[in-house]
Write a structure and sequence with these properties.
Blueprint: H1 3-9, E1 18-19, H2 30-44, E2 56-63, E3 67-75, E4 81-89, H3 99-111, E5 118-122, E6 125-129, E7 134-135, H4 144-159, H5 177-194, E8 200-203, E9 212-215, E10 220-223, E11 230-233, H6 234-243, H7 258-269, H8 279-310, H9 317-343
Parallel strand pairs: 1-5
Antiparallel strand pairs: 2-3, 3-4, 4-6, 5-6, 7-9, 8-11, 9-10
Helix pairs in contact: 4-7, 5-8, 6-8, 7-8, 8-9
Length: about 350
């Protein structure tokens, strides 16, 4: 089902989501992409349909592996300037991202105050309100005040009662010795994590610095981009976030220390009274997060294998697979030993 059809078929809200049948060519340079992008905006927002193209300006916000973010600024007839964010899906990313699920999630999340407001959809992307804030860099996430705020926001995110979502299962399998080896590792780590009884929450699943924005003047933090959002284990979302302290260079020597993690956990478990968290609760969530840290490495390793087969993007996915899988193996003995010792009492 097309994304636009999903939008039209949802009667859960009185708000009618704008939709367009247009598709944008993601291979175009920004100058070549600008005219069709303006056409798209005019198609979605009828009040702009008669404006001259010179009233529009387009700039790149960021370009990731799975999407491209563009800022479109429009000078309206009354002289006011408004901005929206246009997100273009990367080619073939629907093999690993369920876009229908993402659309449904964003509608509920934006209504709950998370991220940007969803304004419209088209065949290979969406339009959202523009957030006037800067994107964090990896070093920001370990700054104590920001780490505390991220923990509080993630607590709120995990506590919100969301809806039942479709689960994306990939049927693609690599019948290779390497895949069987990885499969055995997955089975082993699943058996261990099952013993932890980690809470299932609606998780972000990709809380890297690029998906956190901060308005410095208002000291307001935003969690954005929910394309991997789904029900998952609390420890996975936290352990995955900690892995992202390594930044885009994947320097896992920057993984947060135990003291830094305990600071985060206190503000996550009791945002209003962080210093009242018991040592018992701190130890439990420490074991949980650092065991699921291994799961995070396995997940992104498998993600890279799928992308290596399906994505036309020029990126060394196989190299990324080995980077994450090797880090999993490097951390496995220590993390599993701590978990087993904790479980044994």
């Amino acid at each position: 089902m097309a994304v636009a059809e999903v939008a039209r078929g949802d009667n859960s809200s009185s708000h009618i989501l704008r939709s367009s049948s247009l598709t944008l060519d993601t291979s175009l340079s920004l100058p070549d992409l600008t005219p069709p992008l303006i056409e798209l905006c005019k198609d979605l927002f009828k009040k702009w349909s008669e404006l001259d193209d010179s009233s529009f300006s387009v700039e790149t916000v960021s370009g990731g592996i799975t999407n491209l973010l563009l800022k479109v600024s429009v000078k309206e007839e009354d002289g006011n300037e408004v901005s929206v964010t246009v997100r273009l899906y990367g080619p073939n990313t629907d093999y690993v991202i369920n876009r229908e699920r993402e659309l449904q999630a964003i509608k509920y999340l934006s209504a709950a105050g998370f991220g940007a407001k969803l304004l419209g959809v088209f065949q290979n992307g969406m339009v959202q309100s523009f957030i006037n804030a800067r994107t964090l860099i990896p070093q920001d996430m370990r700054e104590p005040k920001l780490a505390a705020e991220i923990a509080k926001q993630l607590h709120k995110f995990h506590q919100h009662p969301f809806f039942t979502l479709m689960i994306l299962r990939s049927e693609k399998k690599y019948e290779t010795i390497l895949f069987k080896e990885v499969y055995n590792e997955v089975v082993e780590i699943k058996e261990l994590t099952d013993l932890l009884n980690a809470p299932v929450v609606f998780a972000h699943n990709d809380l890297l610095s690029g998906n956190l924005m901060l308005n410095d003047d208002e000291e307001k933090l935003y969690i954005i981009d929910f394309e991997y959002g789904s029900y998952s284990y609390r420890g996975y979302d936290i352990g995955n976030h900690f892995n992202e302290y390594g930044g885009y260079d994947c320097d896992y020597n920057l993984y947060p220390s135990k003291d830094e993690q305990y600071h985060f956990f206190r503000h996550y478990l009791q945002p209003d009274k962080p210093h009242e968290v018991s040592d018992k609760d701190l130890e439990a969530i420490f074991i949980e997060a650092n065991t699921y840290m291994l799961v995070s490495h396995l997940f992104w390793a498998l993600w890279a294998l799928i992308q290596a087969r399906m994505s036309p993007i020029d990126f060394d996915y196989l190299g990324y697979f080995f980077l994450r899988y090797n880090e999993f193996k490097r951390q496995k003995e220590k993390a599993c030993s701590l978990a087993r010792s904790y479980l044994s009492g």
